[in-house]
Specification:
This protein has 247 residues and is of the alpha/beta class. It contains 7 helices and 15 strands.
């Protein structure tokens, strides 16, 4: 079995000890080669040991985990964030995290994160180079925790007071504890369009447009979504930029 080198960076000694113990006892794919108790020392350990994966705490004094990563160029390792604060999720995803684990760590979630690391390197042909292709992922907070979703699988989003209903490819629905406006700022505006104050659609799933009752979009799953009159013209022009004109 191939071993993947790991560095743990966390300012809390008890937390480092717990992470180390769980990995050593239950994650045989990982070999811990170093630890650090702050960002600057963590950067030195990464440069010295060249790990495959870094288990990185976010909230550290002086230099937090995000700031540490910003100072590392040509990053070639996976990052698994460790934190007690769920609100860092979106930032972690944007930073190219392989996974994001809440403290206290749950063994099943840690093992799942390790599987993602192993799968990452296996799909890269075992070359040991992490390209961080996970930036399509969006972290969806909900009542039971959070779910990582590839935004390309989101068919459309529907506002529901301070929550948002996400409809995924394959008929799956997630109720997220964020507003539609927040998702609009997160999702790429080259792929998603706000056709109504209560609806944001992935234009890649648009199957048909109808002038019925002022205008509606028919999505690939058969859903009919109303287009507001104020956005009809803008939506029409937006769709034209995505279509291929016949020669």
């Amino acid at each position: 079995m191939q071993k993947y080198r790991a560095v743990i960076i966390d300012d809390e000694e008890d937390s480092r000890s717990n992470t180390r113990s769980m990995i050593q006892n239950y994650c045989s794919e990982i070999e811990i080669v170093g630890e650090a108790d702050n960002g600057p020392n963590g950067k030195l350990k990464i440069q010295e040991l060249k790990p495959h994966v870094v288990f990185l705490d976010i909230n550290m004094p002086g230099m937090n985990g995000f700031q540490m990563l910003e100072g590392i160029y040509n990053r070639d390792f996976c990052v698994v964030f460790l934190t007690a604060y769920s609100e860092h999720g979106i930032t972690a995803v944007k930073a190219g995290a392989t996974d994001y684990l809440l403290k206290p760590l749950m063994l099943s979630e840690l093992q799942n994160a390790v599987r993602k690391v192993v799968q990452h390197y296996e799909t890269k042909g075992g070359q040991g180079v992490a390209k961080h292709d996970d930036k399509n992922l969006v972290l969806i907070n909900h009542s039971k925790g959070f779910t990582l979703v590839d935004f390309k699988d989101i068919v459309w989003l529907e506002a529901s007071d301070n929550y948002t209903n996400l409809y995924l490819n394959g008929q799956k629905k997630i109720i997220a504890s964020k507003t539609l406006k927040e998702f609009e700022t997160i999702l790429p505006d080259t792929e998603f369009f706000r056709i109504h104050r209560s609806a944001l659609i992935n234009i890649n799933f648009v199957k048909e447009y109808s002038n019925h009752e002022g205008g509606e979009v028919i999505l690939s799953d058969g859903t009919h979504v109303q287009v507001s009159k104020a956005r009809t013209q803008e939506f029409s022009e937006f769709i034209k930029t995505k279509s291929v004109s016949p020669k």
